[in-house]
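Weekly puzzle thread! Below is a chain. First person to post its structure in token form gets bragging rights.
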Amino acid sequence: MSDNSMTRALREHLAVCHDLLALARKESAALSDPAPFPVAPMQAERQDLLSRLEFSWNSFARARTECEQLEPGKREPVPGFAELLQSSLDTIMRVLVLDRENEQNLLRRGLLPARALPPAERQQPDFVARAYDRHKHP
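Winning reply:
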């Protein structure tokens, strides 16, 4: 594996994750402001970013599959790839934590009906880790 499509796809995915983190921070700031929360613009931006996230993740998954099909001797280590992957995971975790806080603030402000909250199993600390494990390639 060289600085190829898998590394590029991971960099693009990380960029989308940073955009999601910026949006979560923007939502958090808007929720702490006593002014009315701009629901429609935030929802539109969130939908756009979620589409980009799905596309970037699918690109990374395709690149990973292509890389895994190479013979082990033809794969070259990529300096910094592990750090890039860890940075991506750390950013995702920050987004999840901040998004959860934003959900609670939306609920407190009456902007989120209780039925819109995630199911109880998502409240478990190891839910994300188990979700990653379920979706790993064999």
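Puzzle host: Confirmed. Bonus trivia for everyone else. The CA atoms of residues 17 and 90 lie 10 Å apart.
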